[in-house]
Amino acid sequence: MTVAPAIAAIVVAHNSADHLPDLIGSLLEQLQPADEIIVVDNLSVDGSAAVARSLSDRVRVIEPGSNGGFAAGCHVGVQHSTAPLLLFLNPDSIPRASCIARLRAAADEHPEWSAWQAAVMISDDVINSDGGVVHYLGFGWAGHCGASAAELPTMPRGVTFPSGAGFVMRRAVWDELGGLDPSYFLYCEDLDLGLRVWSAGYQVGLVPDAHVLHEYEFDKGGRKWFWLERNRWRTILSVYPASLLLLLVPALAASELALMLISARDGWLTMKLRAQASVLVGLPTVLRRRRRVQTASRVNPAEFASLLTASLDSRHLPLGNLPWLVWCQGAYWAGVRRLLSTFG
Q1: Stretch among 2-16, 117-131, 208-222, 291-305 having the lowest mean pLDDT
Q2: What confidence tens digit (pLDDT) does each residue in 25-51 have?
Q3: Which domain holds residue 107?
Q4: Are the CB atoms for 228 and 117 separated by under 8 Å?
Q5: What's the number of domains the chain is made of?
Q6: Integer Cα distance of 233 and 75 in angstroms
Q7: For residue 307, which of 147, 93, 143 has the smallest C-alpha distance?
Q8: CA distances from 315 to 28, 202, 211 (A)
């Protein structure tokens, strides 16, 4: 009989005292004796660490003494765990009944997957993410966000990147690829990880009948735009294959001009300029990272491009959804794909 692999449930908390009881309670109901619960408290001031410790002796609380962001907190949790499967959950999430069992079973049912996510739900009836979507300009969003639960796929399938709100990764691949990049601090670290997993020749999947509830709201504040734009460019410059990057130069330049105008109109131009400056100052680091990522790559540019989309089907995209823009950028992407297939 196959022994079910142990899971380390890793939660990065920051002022999460109100959410932790529901999350930890759900985990305690579903985890097996060999599983672990690690809560990394990123300098909370609301007593999150004390709350987590009070919930169960099974909860191990780590206090790094600083707030290095979500990805850095995940690394701390991994370092203090031993299980072969790493389950990452947002503190404001709640795994529904049988969620953990279904995610665990996927380890054996889908040996081709190195990372996989639950269906992340805003409510039992509304989807938050059934798999991340990445536009070829580097914008990413939660698939089918706001759609009815009836639109969830009926069978497991591949996705471009897993939602950081609730996903599993094999420890061996986490160690090999370096896991989530701590330098991202907030936002896009799951997108970056997903693309690196695929680039290294592994796969990312969705377990649609494993559900995690997540309190989700898209915050359009200026600070968020800084991290989104800064980290989008870090991923493009380090993860995209060279031939794809070269073919996208005109589109990337045009999108930068458009974003400058949009950010000025919508009040976040300062954050956009700060993001550009951060990318330029950090370029030597990004180029070193690029060498590592490209050395680990096992797919050709055409295969990598198949992970990306020309769709603008997201209400959060700052470039809008104008018919002429949809057609132009879609035609451009089709041409890029043809060139990569022919010469890439």
Answers
A1: 208-222
A2: 999 999 999 999 999 999 999 999 999
A3: 7-214
A4: no
A5: 2
A6: 23
A7: 143
A8: 36, 30, 23
